Structures are given as structure tokens and as C-alpha cells.
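Researcher: We're reviewing a set of sequences before deciding which ones to prioritize for further study. For each one, I'd like a predicted 3D structure that I can look through quickly. This is PPM-type phosphatase domain-containing protein. If possible, include the structure in C-alpha cell form so it fits the rest of the review sheet.
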Amino acid sequence: MEEENEYDKLLSELDDIESSPIRPWKTINNTPKHQAPPAPSAPSAPSAPPAPAVPSVLLKAPAPPKREASWDQSDVGDEIEDLLGELDHIAANKVQQACASAPAPATNLPFRCKLVCMGAAEEQGLRPQMEDKHVLVPDFYPKSIEEKLSGARAFCAVFDGHSGSQISDYAAGRMPALLALEAWYRSPLTPDTQVHQVTASLELLTLRTGSEEVFDKRVRETRFRDHVVNDGRKSERRHVSLSLLWLLILLVAGSTANVALLLGDVLHVANLGDSRAVLCRNGFAQALSEDHKPDLPSEKARIESLDGRVEWRGCWRVIGGSGIAAFRGLAVSRALGDVPWKVPVSYVEGTPDVTSTKLTADDEFLIIGCDGVWDVLNNQEAVDLARPCRRRRVMINEQALERGSKDNVTVAVMIFFQC
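Model: Here's the predicted structure for PPM-type phosphatase domain-containing protein, in C-alpha cell form for your review sheet.
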């Protein structure tokens, strides 16, 4: 309050100075010209110089430097400059006090994703067939709870098949359906306590989409087709030959799985194999999954503890058991399918790693790509390509192919919006 009064007084005095006639800053000799100066007296202590003619509110401040007497108009300008300087000083103090009293900017602001945009692109590349599959479900919830949801729910996944597309095909169609059977799917609430339930679901359901269920389903389909073709009079030889054919295909087929499930402000990622999920956080890449390669120290130690081997055969491969598992090896240490590497010994595992990440306002989008992308692009390069481009997933695919990727190339992008 005191500073506000001083501020008003200064403005008033400044107006008086500008409207008053020209006057000196101060007077050194006040004796009229017609009067002789007094006779000198005995030396005495020097008297204090006359006080300068300055506003009273400035007397508290350090005295300004002395100026010689002058009747020039420039003295008035000097006085105005001093007053303006003092006004600036008071104004600066007010700004400083206002800043000190204002609350500090909040960090880690709460973020609730309200809208998700998704897209994917895939290229066969130099491979003889396309074995990759992707799934995009931007509204992953039953319509009955739509009005009660407080944030977006979305499902996004990339399945990179090998030795055929049977497993990746099946997983892409089966995984969302299995997740939709879980209790949390039908609940509009997504409290933190459900994080454990969701991660457990992802782990369990990834296992359920493994080779055993696929094999059982394919055998049942084969038997049904056999009955239909033969009008109920099945040929035992035909039945056996078809079953053995499917068995042979399913024995060698497999797939990676990288699944992202967004529930409000929490992003869950389950990974099996060498597909990868990368989050763009304020322009910087942050990997949300770790590639399950055979030469990864933890994976190599596990394989060798089971008397398996990790050998270089064009790339690092899991070698174990007998037959095809020992002859060819597998380039990933965890996967769906790949029965010869799992029975009777699980040199290759089907248990995914699951991470849960709480999104912030800095999180922009998620990239999920198969190894055909990450063989030629690092995480930051993919983010830098995608960030300024509306056709994010297409740009990444095109760049991967230009850099010589010989594999199938599949990229899915999930963009977060808070609105």
C-alpha cells in the first residue's frame, strides 16, 4: 500500500514538473547580486550543503550527485529522467512481488487422453510373402459404457510372422476378442488398482494365443472341412494328410507380438519378440519395450541354462533340441508359436514383458514397428521422421525401405490428444 501511494505521488510530481516554468535543479549561492557577501568569519565546521529540491518521497533514496547551478532547460530534463528511473524501480519491485506471490508452475500436470488417432502402413519389401499383421481399434470399449468413460481407450498391435502368416493371422484376430472378455473391459472405471489386472490379462492372453490353441483350432477346422468335402463319408487317408499338413505348417510358424492398450492416462505395452514400441515424449524417443533377441544377456543366460545354444548364423539364433530347432535355429528368444523350440524344452518362451506408463502432457504419439523398421532406423530417427509429418507411418516405412530393409515393414502409430 505504501509503495502504491509513493507511485501516485511520483506521477503527480512528474506532472507538476512538466507544467511548471523552468527552474534550476539546485542553487549553490542564494545571495542577491546587489548585496555584498558577509565578511569571512573564523573557521568553523563546514555546514551541510542545502538540500536539493527533489520530491520528498525520494529523500529516502541515496542523494543524487551534485550539479552546478544552471538555468538551462536541460536540468528539468535531468530531473524528469531521475523521476522516471525511480518509477521504473518501483514498478520493477511490484512485478517482483507479484511473481513471488504467484504459485509456481505445476510439474507433471495430470493428463487424460480424450482422443486417439491411429494409422498403420505396411510393405512386403523383398520377402516372397507378407507375414506381418496389425490391429487398430481406436474405440476399445463396449458401447454401453461410452457415456461414462473419462478418457480414451484404444488397442493397437503389430504381429510379425515368420515361416508363414498362420500364427500372426490368428493372433491378430484373437487377441482383441480375448481382451474383450476381461472384467475391466466392461467397467467404465480405470483406477490405478486395475493396472495389475490389465497387465495380468495381457500376460495370460498372450500365452493363450500361443501355438497349442492355434493347433487345436486348425485341426478342428481341418476335420470339419474334411466332413463337408466328402459329404459325411470322410476318407481316413485324406483326414490324416490334411492334419499332418497343418501340423507341419504350425510346427514351424511363429510370430512376435507387440500390443499397446491405452486406458485413459495409462499406456500398457506387452511385448513378445523383436517388434518394438517407442513413445515420443516432448520430441525425444523413449522405448517402452525391449527386443527379445537371443544375444540379449538375460535371454542368452536363460537359454544356456537349459543346455541350449546361441550361435551366429547370419544373425544370432536360438539352437536347441533336435530336428529343425537344432538345424535352423530361431532369430528371436520369445515368440508365439514355434513349437519345436518349446517342446519338450522351452528354449523359446511365450511369456511377454509388460510395462505400464502414465502419460503426461509431453507425450505426443506411440510408434509400434516390426524389426524390419528397427534394423535400419534407431528410435530417435523414427520419432524425428514421424513428428513433423502428417503421414507419420508412411514416412517411416518409406525411409526403412530406402535404407535397405529386406524384411516386411509394418508400422502403426497412435497419436494422443487432450481436449
